[in-house]
Amino acid sequence: MRTRAAVLREYNQPWSVEEIELDPPKHNEVLVKMVASGMCHSDEHALDGHIAGLVPGPPMIGGHEGAGIVQEVGDGVDWLEPGDHVVFGFIPACGRCPSCADGHSNLCDLLATFADGTQALDGTHRHHTLDGKDLGLMCLIGTFSEHTVVNEASCIKVDKDWPLDKGCLLGCGVVTGWGSAVYSADVQPGDYVAVVGCGGIGANAVQGAAMAGARVVAAIDPVAFKREQAMEFGATHAFSSMAEAMEKLGETTWDRGYDKVIMTMGTGSAEALGQGFNLGGKRAKIVVTNLHSTSEGTINVPAIMLTMMEKQVIGSLFGSANIRKDIPRLFELYLQGKLKIDELITKTYTLDQINEGYDAMRNGENIRGVILFDQ
Ligand SMILES: [Zn+2]
Ligand SMILES: [Zn+2]
Predict the structure, then answer these.
(1) Active-site residue, from 45, 50, 85, 125
(2) Domain limits at 26?
(3) Is the pTM of this model over 0.70?
(4) Is the pLDDT of residue 248 over 90?
(5) Does 40 participate in catalysis according to the annotation?
């Protein structure tokens, strides 16, 4: 069939919105008509080459935070049928590999196929340019497309009356941020928590820390709008930089330093991680959720303090969450009014306006932009 998608044709060029050819789903695959796709910073990293080697290069369909309606299932798919509503997990959960079996589906072995951009199981492509070139997929899903074919492992079935235009954000940003606080940082009632970077991920880390009972949630971001928004999501303090947070460390944390520091910047850096590390107190967990460039070979932390203060630096992927449990769970918390999602969506766009949406993200205007597809 023919459909339309936003394609990365060349690094550092705008997304090209174009017609593509899409094959029917094969074994264990599903054809999904997209309803909505979040515009996450990681697609920007794919576009600028910062995560080259982790995701396929051009030509590639972007997008990894989406939700839609099943149109057709391939053979072997017996738990989904046309008309079912699904949220995609940007990391699939096969349910069979050691990580999935151990309750860490965020590290599912199917991650190993990310860089190829092919279908997860047979290494071939379903998406092609009109002139016959194979198109890679961002995170095995490619949500910047009106239709896509994905492996069933990427699909989480949700109730049909749940709003997919909001739930799409559960596929990356909400779960990643919330889980960074609740699972990776293991925020406890009364903790002092700092969240560094308050975009789509950080706002949810703030929300998760507040929900877990933190005493102080300091939101650190250079953009005033994001600091204001963070206060709405449960922050108790806001600082424009880590240097400012360090100046106020005594009065904010009773001279203890933060128990949890969660790094959720647009792009991490060795220097920033060092600053975040220094905000942590004794036995602090420093959670690294933001991506560093694949070209950055080292981190910069004063190692003596690892020992002397028993600090811990912890990597966090997809919020250390289990999507089959956590996507429905967070969706229900949203429906109960306990988790904010509406407030994350600053603006919606059509697929044709995708570059406008990314310009706004670069300018710090959006917590999250969301593409709504014609229905
Ligand atoms: Zn993302
Ligand atoms: Zn798995």
Answers:
(1) 45
(2) 2-171+340-372
(3) yes
(4) yes
(5) yes
